[in-house]
């Protein structure tokens, strides 16, 4: 082996060693929200929870290791059930992020395709305008007024 090859090999190994020494990131823990209409001590509710945990275990998921389960006990109170459902779901922000990220990925691809086929940005700008119109329409009509909710104060009686 020539000296130049040895130095290249040694330099490559030195550069790659910090990358190899890093620990692999732990797999993300999944979350499951369970909303029970029963009171917490109800035997049927406990049987349902046991069945859920057994089914997850059969799939290889262990509570606390692979999955975190958030339990909410409405105890037959519809107002509590609504509050807990909103708390557990909380997906509006997540859905906006999903669609925003999807649009951020697909829009440049679609615009590139349109420009390649037509040779002009005219139709591409129409596509961008139509996408913006759909977003504004969805925001105004479907989403409506967005307010911050303090779900903890709704689920607990207020101290006087």
Written account of the structure:
This protein has 160 residues and is mostly helical. The protein folds into 2 domains: 30-77; 92-155, no CATH class. Helices cover 63% and strands 9% of the residues. It has 6 helices and 2 strands. It has helices spanning 3-21, 43-58, 78-89, 92-118, 122-143, 151-155, and strands at residues 30-36, 67-73. It has a two-stranded parallel sheet. Helix 2 (43-58) links the parallel strand 1 and strand 2. Helix 4 (92-118) runs antiparallel to helix 5 (122-143). 2% of the residues are buried. The model is unreliable at 13-25 (pLDDT under 50).
Topology overview:
Layout: H1 3-21, E1 30-36, H2 43-58, E2 67-73, H3 78-89, H4 92-118, H5 122-143, H6 151-155
Parallel strand pairs: 1-2
Helix pairs in contact: 4-5
Secondary structure: number of strands = 2
Instruction: For the record, give the distance between the C-alpha atoms at the N and C termini, rounded to a whole number.
Output: 83 Å
User: Rg to the nearest angstrom?
Assistant: 27 Å
Which strands sit side by side, in order, in the main sheet? 1-2
Task: Look at the structure and give the mean pLDDT.
Answer: 75
Regarding quaternary structure, how should these chains be classified?
single chain
Strand content: 5-15%
Number of helices: 6
Structural class of the helix and strand makeup?
Answer: mainly alpha
Q: Major sheet: size, sense and barrel closure?
A: 2 strands, parallel
Order of helices and strands: HEHEHHHH
- Domain count: the total is 2
